[in-house]
TrEMBL record:
CDD domains: SAICAR_synt_PurC. Belongs to the SAICAR synthetase family. It is an enzyme of class 6 (ligase). This is Phosphoribosylaminoimidazole-succinocarboxamide synthase. Its EC number is 6.3.2.6. PROSITE patterns: SAICAR_SYNTHETASE_1, SAICAR_SYNTHETASE_2. It catalyses: 5-amino-1-(5-phospho-D-ribosyl)imidazole-4-carboxylate + L-aspartate + ATP = (2S)-2-[5-amino-1-(5-phospho-beta-D-ribosyl)imidazole-4-carboxamido]succinate + ADP + phosphate + 2 H(+). Pfam families: SAICAR_synt. One of its GO terms (molecular function) is ATP binding. Gene3D superfamilies: ATP-grasp fold, B domain (3.30.470.20), Phosphorylase Kinase, domain 1 (3.30.200.20). Pathway: Purine metabolism; IMP biosynthesis via de novo pathway; 5-amino-1-(5-phospho-D-ribosyl)imidazole-4-carboxamide from 5-amino-1-(5-phospho-D-ribosyl)imidazole-4-carboxylate: step 1/2. It comes from Flavimaricola marinus. InterPro entries: SAICAR_synt/ADE2_N (IPR028923), SAICAR_synt_PurC (IPR033934), SAICAR_synth (IPR001636), SAICAR_synthetase (IPR050089), SAICAR_synthetase_CS (IPR018236). GO terms for biological process: 'de novo' IMP biosynthetic process; cobalamin biosynthetic process. The gene is purC.
């Protein structure tokens, strides 16, 4: 196959030109970073798991009518996606206090919030993705008021879906981050869920034990990240057939 043109290489993924105009191939790397690249490592098998898990969540969202950039998975590490204009925001939905919110407000991690809270960070690695009020987003033209209303509605639908799916396998969805893209159907822009949805971009706690099953395992040196992600994939029934990391043998009925 002819060498594909690399469009962008980020911290966790590489984007290549896709086979058709308006498409991209998203390659999931094994690289893990935290604290905006301050902590780095290569975690064997992470890319394979995140490719599968993101496919699982994006296709699930599509099945309930939430539009996403996902077209199809190509192989263990790659998926075909629709090219979008990324809205330069990290859209964060929180159900329980954790991470930066818990720190900022002096709340204990795990405190149930009165309702899901949607917040926005400006996507800029050099600035460390600072939290921004909606007023900034509109004044600087990163998104319109209408876009923001639509983004919040989308984010809350993603939250309901993800919370339900996770609850079904004994996992609490504490918070997560999504990115939103704009696609053009002729003259008309539409907003879709883009980037990835995986344990890299969610906080997932085991309901029974409180064990962390997400990137905090890496951020806070709590053990094997691959084991944690494999556990999430196993519970959801989306383990790839030839993944090498299995925490324990599974019984097949
Ligand atoms: N469908 C898409 N079209 C165009 N860009 C996308 C799409 N989905 C995700 N992206 C962008 O591709 C990059 C994915 O690589 P990643 O390693 O996550 O980068 P980063 O280090 O910037 O977070 C991100 O910058 C993300 O905004
Ligand atoms: Mg990213």
């Amino acid at each position: 196959m002819a060498r594909r043109k690399k469009v962008y290489e980020g911290k966790a993924k590489i984007l290549f030109e896709g086979p058709e105009p308006g498409t991209l191939v998203q390659y999931f790397k094994d690289d893990a970073t935290a604290g905006n690249g301050a902590k780095k490592d290569v975690i064997d098998g992470k890319g394979v798991l995140n490719n599968r898990l993101s496919e699982f969540f994006m296709t699930g969202l599509q099945s309930i009518g939430v539009p996403t950039h996902f077209i199809k998975r190509l192989n263990m590490r790659e998926q075909l996606i629709r090219q979008v204009e990324i809205v330069p925001l990290e859209v964060i939905v929180r159900n329980y206090a954790a991470g930066s919110m818990a720190k900022r407000l002096g709340m204990e991690e795990g405190t149930l919030l009165p309702r899901p809270i949607v917040e926005f960070s400006y996507k800029d690695d050099k600035l460390g993705d600072p939290l921004v009020p909606e007023e900034y987003i509109i004044a600087f033209g990163w998104a319109s008021q209408q876009d923001l209303d639509d983004i919040i509605a989308l984010a809350l639908r993603v939250n309901d879906f993800m919370s339900g799916v996770m609850h079904g396998v004994g996992i609490k969805l504490v918070d997560f981050k999504i990115e939103i893209g704009r696609v053009w159907d002729g003259e008309f822009p539409r907003l879709v869920v883009a980037d990835e949805i995986s344990p890299d971009s969610c906080r997932l706690w085991d309901i029974e034990t409180g064990a962390k099953l997400d990137k905090d395992v890496f951020r806070r040196d709590l053990g094997s990240l691959t084991d944690a992600y494999t556990e999430v994939a196993r519970r959801l029934g989306v383990l790839p057939s030839n993944v090498t990391h299995r925490p324990k043998p599974t019984l097949i009925n």
